[in-house]
Write a structure and sequence with these properties.
FAD/NAD(P)-binding domain; nine-stranded mixed β-sheet; 14 helices; 471 residues; five-stranded antiparallel β-sheet; globular
């Protein structure tokens, strides 16, 4: 093993160049610091290559098919023949055929330097990078180490699964053709988005979810709505079913559940969450104790793992690695807090009180803050209001596919919303939740929200109906 010491001055090392890491490294470089960015995968992270961008291109294509199928009875006649080839081509274009050359050039043009390799902390103020040739490069930055190491698809230890050609989201977005049948393990956001996409392009799709409802982290009403819509569209859903064994005979998968069901499919998508490789960050080298039992990197609301001390650089962590929401917008917001801390600029700390999240199915589900169950668990005095989207003019005008609702969760003692969910067609869920996010973030009194004038006829007017119920 060849070990080299990085001899040029370095102010900061950013390990993990996903959206948050790239933001930190770029802004520090803009500020005149000598910055080294490190990543063993593609600069830009999961979002532009395997997550948000390519999957939403697929979702958009599938939504176009669904809209065309609704033309009869609403606007005339229409014949649609699904074709995956243009979708695969669009995904390749959106991801630059899974090349990060443009991203690397963009970062180095700002003055940063990029190392392709696996970076880890190997001592106080020390990062070691193992590059593609196996050479180890030791870097000792003067001001900051930032961990933005992201997360990986979590693959459960199901007997028979290891060694089979199963998909995660990474293989699914790179698919060159639609399988005849697809089994999906996991009824969360990723699993349902991709399940609906492939079903609309002709796959026979079965979803297996261990929890008693779909979208188990969200309001029960959201899971119930999607269960009805998906099953009406021909998908098969097994709830409360844990995959107990997986088999693959070279041409098809079998999934046996603990309830005695057997699912057979050409392809298997594992969408059972994500995991953070905390041990791989090298936290133990900082003297913080055994990291083997940690599921995330411990960081405070200033994103600090260790504050600067004397000649020792500080250590910050952002994004998926800190376990406070695996979303690009969370990583970017935390990146801003970390940059301000490194540069000594102060400003507000990170808060997850009003973090929005969107499941890009149809109906689309947007949510912010606490669910009703979470609010009750925290001991809040809770009142909820739920209004059906179809009760408003826009819902009735929308016709088929106009399903949805708005649910608000109010803390009656404070007189403000602490959470909300909006579900609706044509992107309505994610768009409606923006107004609700502002209300939760700014702690707008419910009495003020009740006096807001909402445009008619819009989906947003349903918010007013839900708010009236918690006054």
């Amino acid at each position: 093993m060849i070990v080299d010491n990085w001899r040029d001055p370095v102010d900061a090392v950013v390990v993990g160049m996903g959206p948050g890491g790239e933001e930190v490294a770029g802004r520090l470089a803009d500020a005149g610091l000598d910055v080294v960015g490190v990543d063993q995968r593609l600069l830009g992270g999961e979002c532009p290559y395997y997550g948000c961008i390519p999957s939403k291109a697929m979702v958009r294509a599938a939504d176009l098919l669904a809209e065309a199928w609704r033309v009869p009875g609403m606007a005339g006649t229409c014949m649609v023949e699904p074709s995956w080839a243009p979708v695969a081509r669009h995904v390749r274009e959106a991801t630059a055929d899974w090349s990060d050359k443009a991203a690397v050039d963009r970062f180095t043009a700002r003055g940063g330097r990029f190392l392709r390799g696996r970076g880890r902390i190997t001592g106080p103020g020390e990062v070691t990078v193992e590059d593609e040739s196996g050479r180890e490069i030791v870097i000792r930055p003067r001001r900051a180490i930032v961990l933005g190491t992201g997360s990986e698809p979590a693959v459960p230890p199901i007997p028979g699964l290891a060694g089979t050609p199963f998909w995660t989201n990474r293989e699914a977005v790179a698919a060159e053709e639609v399988p005849r049948s697809l089994a999906v393990l996991g009824g969360g956001a990723v699993g349902l988005e991709l399940a609906q996409v492939f079903a609309r392009f002709g796959a026979d799709v079965t979803v297996v979810e261990a929890a008693p409802r779909l979208l188990p982290a969200e309001e029960p009403e959201a899971g119930e709505l999607l269960l009805r819509v998906l099953t009406e569209a021909g998908l098969t859903v097994h709830l409360g079913s844990l995959a107990a064994a997986v088999g693959h005979d070279g041409s098809a998968f079998t999934v046996d559940t603990d309830r005695g069901d057997r699912v057979t499919a050409e392809r298997l998508l594992v969408a059972t969450g994500r995991r953070v490789d905390v041990e791989g960050t090298g936290l133990a080298a900082l003297g913080l104790g055994d990291a083997s039992g940690l599921h995330a990197v411990p960081a405070d609301d200033r994103m600090r793992v260790l504050p600067p001390l004397g000649s020792r650089p500080g250590v910050w962590a952002i994004g998926d690695a800190v376990g406070r929401g695996a979303f690009t917008h969370v990583a970017m917001a935390q990146a801003d807090v970390a940059v301000r801390g490194i540069l000594g600029e102060g400003g507000p700390p990170w808060s997850d009180r009003a973090t929005p999240r969107v499941t890009f199915t149809e109906p689309e589900v947007g949510a912010v803050g606490l669910t009703e169950h979470q609010a009750v668990e925290q001991g809040l005095q809770v009142r909820t209001g739920t209004a059906d989207l179809r009760s408003g003019a826009r819902g009735r005008l929308h016709g088929p596919g106009g399903d949805g609702f708005v649910k608000v969760v109010a803390d009656t003692a404070a007189g403000t919303l602490v959470g909300a969910t909006a579900a609706g067609p044509a992107g309505a869920g994610g768009e409606m939740v923006s107004a609700l996010t502002l209300a939760v973030h700014a702690r707008v009194p419910v009495s003020d929200l009740a006096r807001v004038t909402w445009a008619f006829p819009t989906f947003h007017r349903t918010i007013a109906e839900a708010v009236k119920m918690v006054l």
